[in-house]
């Protein structure tokens, strides 16, 4: 009886921890923690473990006919797994991508949960026209997710960078244009996660 009781307690604690990881409130806290970590780890002394930033940075440059120079910077931050090793393996926790297209700046952030699944997207797209011949507007997207399920979307827009954003949608059921944006970011998040795995194998595989 006691064994069954403790097993049930353990199962309940496991379920609660998994649920807590994927509430909007906990996602916001983890996002804040990730941003605070990045802001506080800016030191250049590699012997100072308290401030020395650890991340993977990929920079791609192209010159494309008709649109000119393109540059994309992807930063990938990780946490260490709890392993009894001298060099514990890593898992991706946060990534950002900054790039330009036709002289317009794009910015995206991706927060991952402990299982490597996307938990949050923050993105700015400066060139959105939801209807044919409609004027371009800048959109700000926030998507909260739990195990692939959309918990909430918050979408704002403005006509120019000089104006404040105005909220245009909050909810869980996306119209077709907004769903297309979510799918685009889901695909980008998967590519970044795979990129992290590939770099990790090359740069930090100390078991070989």
Task: Provide a descriptive summary of the structure in words.
This protein is an alpha+beta fold. It contains 3 helices and 8 strands. The protein has helices at about 1-20, 25-40, 175-205; strands spanning about 55-65, 70-80, 90-100, 105-110, 120-130, 135-145, 150-160, 165-170. The protein has an 8-stranded antiparallel sheet, sandwiched between helices. A hairpin with a 3-residue loop joins strand 1 (about 55-65) and strand 2. The radius of gyration is 20 Å and the shape is globular. Mean pLDDT is about 85; it is low at about 1-20.
Share of residues in strands? 35-45%
Q: Which spans of ≥5 residues are poorly predicted at pLDDT below 50?
A: 1-20
Strand order of the largest sheet: 1-2-3-4-5-6-7-8
**How is the biggest beta sheet arranged?**
8 strands, antiparallel
The coarse silhouette is globular
Helix-strand string: HHEEEEEEEEH
Secondary-structure-based class equals alpha+beta
| Continuous helix count | 3
Overall helicity: 25-40%
Terminal residue distance: 46 Å
Number of strands: 8
Keywords, separated by commas or semicolons:
single chain, 208 residues, alpha+beta, eight-stranded antiparallel sheet, 8 strands, disordered N terminus
What's a concise summary of this model?
The protein has helices at 2-20, 24-40, 176-203, and strands spanning 56-64, 68-80, 90-101, 104-112, 118-128, 137-146, 149-158, 166-171. The protein is α+β, with helices and mostly antiparallel strands and 208 residues long.
């Amino acid at each position: 009886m006691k064994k069954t009781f403790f097993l049930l307690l353990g199962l309940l604690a496991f379920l609660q921890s998994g649920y807590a990881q994927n509430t909007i409130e906990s996602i916001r806290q983890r996002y804040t923690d990730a941003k605070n970590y990045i802001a506080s780890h800016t030191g250049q002394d590699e012997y100072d473990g308290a401030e020395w930033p650890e991340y993977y940075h990929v920079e791609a440059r192209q010159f494309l006919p008709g649109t000119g120079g393109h540059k994309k910077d992807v930063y990938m931050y990780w946490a260490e797994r709890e392993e009894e090793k001298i060099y514990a393996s890593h898992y991706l926790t946060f990534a950002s991508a900054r790039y330009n297209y036709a002289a317009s700046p794009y910015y995206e952030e991706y927060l991952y949960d402990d299982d490597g699944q996307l938990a949050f997207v923050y993105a700015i797209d400066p060139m959105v026209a939801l209807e044919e011949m409609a004027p371009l507007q800048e959109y700000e997207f926030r998507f909260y997710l739990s195990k692939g399920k959309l918990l909430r979307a918050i979408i704002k827009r403005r006509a120019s960078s000089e104006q404040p954003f105005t909220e245009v949608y909050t909810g869980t059921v996306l119209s077709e244009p907004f769903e297309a944006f979510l799918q685009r970011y889901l695909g980008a998040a998967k590519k970044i996660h795979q990129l992290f795995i590939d770099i990790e194998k090359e740069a930090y595989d100390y078991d070989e």
